[in-house]
Amino acid sequence: MLETVDQLMKLQPIVMKQLQMIFEKGRIGHAYIFEGEKGTGKKEVAKFFIKLLLCLNPSKNVPCETCRNCKRVESGNHPNVLHIEPDGQFIKVEQIRDLISTMAKTSFEEGRKIYVLHHADKMNIAASNTLLKFLEEPDGQVTAILLTEQYQSILPTIRSRCQHIKFSSIPKEFLIQQLVEHGLTFSMASTVSQVTNSLEKGLELAQDEQFALARKTVLKLVEAVRKNVNEALLIIYDEWIPNLKERNEFELSLDLLLLAYRDIVAIKANPDSACTYPDMIDRWKEFALSSTYEQLSNQMHAILEARQNVGRNMNRTLLMEQLMLKLQEGYSFV
């Protein structure tokens, strides 16, 4: 979903410069591990690096995008580039043996051969040991790129033979901008960016009716708690409990509730703070003026406590009744 070098430079400036320097100095290693959370651009950066290594006309450490090799890498049809995905839950030994066998064939073109292991942490022990032998004795110009979200799950002996390229989390501003460019409102993009670091997951969440409903219910609840605990309880009985049946939905809604109170604290400290709910900023300013830091701290602590109790299988209606009473306590004295 990220298509241009400029976008990748904004997303992963350190990694991009690191790879460009490797290319410029001609110090291309035989194996790399790209480690980063989902959505940090590992696949896109790997494609950029592969193009750069195979490009016929690179300029200023950037692939030309127009030569035969760049086009074939882009379309997934370059014969010297192989991709391995998990077969079910694991990357199996047969897949690694097939990879090694294919790499040894003469059907390849001259030049560098590159293979990419997606979710490399999912190699089983036999697959890992087979790959290890190949990493130790690669045949000719061969470069491996292992992609993972779980660096520690890869065998230490494999890690020690690869250059570790660590991807940073996506800057929130960049993710919000990407989400807005894909059609989300700034308010929804801001909320989504607090829940996930992935553009793909963010777009999925924004289109999920359950997520939109949870967001709406949370905002109604924050308003109601300030007015009357009975009104807040009515929302719990009529909207929260009936609509949030799955545990993950329930927990996510409590997270969204916590983020609302965090917004109010941030606005109280600095009226120009970025918010999870920018559409509520005027109300948050009102709430910030009429709340003390102690009240807000107690409210956030109560939400965190409720979040922990969900995992202890406490009765959810009782849990939310208690939470509403705790959230409302301070307002009697405002």
Automatic annotation (TrEMBL):
NCBIfam families linked to this entry: holB, PRK08058.1
Residues covered by the DNA polymerase III delta subunit C-terminal domain: 241-328
InterPro entries (alphabetical): DNA_pol3_clamp-load_cplx_C, DNA_pol_HolB, DNA_pol_III_delta_C, DNA_Rep/Repair_Clamp_Loader, P-loop_NTPase
Record Pfam families: DNA_pol3_delta2, DNApol3-delta_C
Keywords: DNA replication, DNA-directed DNA polymerase, Nucleotidyltransferase, Transferase
Catalytic activity annotation: DNA(n) + a 2'-deoxyribonucleoside 5'-triphosphate = DNA(n+1) + diphosphate
Entry's Gene Ontology BP terms: DNA-templated DNA replication
Gene3D superfamilies: 1.20.272.10, P-loop containing nucleotide triphosphate hydrolases (3.40.50.300)
GO cellular component: DNA polymerase III complex
Official protein name in the record: DNA polymerase III subunit delta'
Enzyme Commission code(s) on record: 2.7.7.7
GO molecular function terms attached to this record: 3'-5' exonuclease activity; DNA binding; DNA-directed DNA polymerase activity
